[in-house]
Amino acid sequence: MKIETIRNFSIIAHIDHGKSTLADRLLEYTGALSEREKQDQFLDKMDLERERGITIKAQTVRLNYQADDGKDYVLNLIDTPGHVDFTYEVSRSLAACEGGLLVVDASQGVEAQTLANVYLAIDNNLEVFPVLNKIDLPAAEPERVKHEIEEIIGLDAHDAVLASAKEGIGTREILEEIVKKIPPPEGDPTAPLKALLFDSWYDQYQGVIILVRLIDGTLKKGDKIQLVSTARSYEALKVGVFAPVMREVPQLSAGEVGFVIAGIKDVADAKIGDTVTHALKPCTTPLGGFKEVKPMVFSGLYPIDTSQYEQLRDALAKLKLNDSSFSYEPETSLALGFGFRCGFLGLLHMEIIQERLEREFNLDLITTAPTVVYKVHRLKGDVISIESANQLPPTQEIDYIEEPFILASIHTPNEFVGGILALCEEKRGVQREIKYLTPTRVMIIYELPLNEVVLDFYDRLKSITKGYASLDYEHLDYRRSELVRMNIMINGEVVDALSLIIHRDKAYYRGRDLVSKMKELIPRQMFEVAIQAAIGTKVIARETVKALRKDVLAKCYGGDITRKRKLLEKQKEGKKRMKNVGNVELPQEAFLAILKVE
Ligand code: GDP
Ligand code: MG
Hints:
Blueprint: E1 6-13, H1 19-29, H2 47-52, E2 60-66, E3 72-78, H3 87-95, E4 99-105, H4 112-123, E5 127-133, H5 142-153, E6 161-162, H6 171-181, E7 194-203, E8 207-216, E9 218-220, E10 224-227, E11 232-235, E12 238-242, E13 246-248, E14 251-253, E15 257-261, E16 275-278, E17 297-303, H7 309-322, E18 327-333, E19 337-344, H8 347-360, E20 365-367, E21 371-372, E22 374-378, E23 383-386, E24 398-413, H9 417-426, E25 430-436, E26 441-449, H10 450-464, E27 470-481, E28 483-490, E29 493-494, E30 500-503, H11 504-521, E31 529-535, E32 538-545, H12 561-576, E33 578-581, E34 584-587, H13 588-595
Parallel strand pairs: 1-3, 1-4, 4-5, 5-6
Antiparallel strand pairs: 2-3, 7-8, 7-16, 8-15, 9-14, 10-11, 10-16, 12-13, 12-15, 17-19, 17-20, 17-21, 18-19, 22-23, 22-24, 24-26, 24-27, 25-26, 28-29, 28-30, 28-31, 31-32, 33-34
Bound molecules: guanosine-5'-diphosphate and magnesium ion.
Magnesium ion is lined by residues 19-20, 44, 53-55, 82.
């Protein structure tokens, strides 16, 4: 294949602006979809993705296109994951391209996610050009949105293609722009193999499939390849392209995009961003930009029905096959029994995994409040990473604790600025910038501690702005912070499962809130029950559940026997779910008040 006729590109868009619909249009127009395959949104394979309208696993397809200049082109459309937790994966997919289509909904305008990804594309030296989608909508304002693209992003939008992916308007113009505006790849097919691994997943029948973009060299079936980060070697058993279904090809060479199946057992060994080379004739320098991704947010997952424990374990193992950025290990909790502590890239990643467990594997789960990774500097000089209060070393051994910060960009209509600033301040945020992008749209940039964001930031932001704000974030750094361990005590006894790590300034309010919530949920017992929140030995909040003989039947004034029976049943039912702390019986709800995500 002639390298001058290849175009590698991605579609960059905010969620719901029409990326998948447009991709389908391009596939259809170039004849890549047969009638049978013409189900809507070929690129979003999983049902869950389709329902949520987001792309979880990137899919890449080769399109053949004969342009107005009469030449035949090969267009590789590289689909990127579409949400904030996968920034690194997006950046690697973009690194496999020379160009990007910036799709903006002409009835909405530029959003935070759009900006973040456009900047990623520009950082990767991509040629980016705008497409205004959904011009069929009566609310479309192409002139305003063009202006916004120029003002906010600084891209020339005067000749932006006006398209409707839904109605198939503008498809050919877009293909022509791809051919004309995006440069062909450069690379030396005779040099040693150097390829970027930009996606990988596990296939039940074929094992791990990796997607690669060849920078230099050629790759064919039978070659002995090596993954640079692990130095492991494999034989390329199959080499091919998605067109749009898998098709083997004799070889891939510099500039091309395709898949390799090489008997890799575990997706964790096929790391995104890694360099693929020939084992016997390796390239001299691997590609830059490689990073090992680590979970940033943790939570406990417990089956509501304890008999589902084994099922949960199997389901987690299955999900892990396809997602090496997610981790899990067994954990037991006094209140919740046997479960797993799971690590995620971020909150949305967490939500997706939970939802898949519940939906695809039919599990009912309790999810504990998410936590983050803290760095504890001990007096003896070492640093340990922990993500729950119970892993904290004794106070007298701690020098100081650091917590992760993120840089959050919030994009909002201007009427919500006040509410958002109040929220960010409450969440211990440090203001960086407030940018008025247009007379009505504002970009608010804050440095925020991740542990405040994982709590309820998204939900609060959504309700403050009625869903009109969008949020994007990146990890910044670790910062020293006044973090303390807060214990909950029941009649003087610390309940380990309820301890948490919290900022000193927040402890008082949170402590008061939690003990009063628990007071509501703990039934009166034969004796008085004291519920306390404490930092070290210092009690910061206290509530008391008064002693009372609980005679529920007294309320029934004789008479109605079925009502009496119901109450007795209910009481028995409640007993089953009680946990003992010392001699106090606590209902599961009291634990959940602290542990569960609301
Ligand atoms: P993605 O999240 O960027 O992949 O967006 P989708 O392609 O899933 O589209 C989001 C929604 O917008 C879907 O309901 C589409 O049917 C709709 N949509 C996409 N393109 C157009 C368009 O050109 N016009 C109209 N009216 N709706 C569109
Ligand atoms: Mg989509």
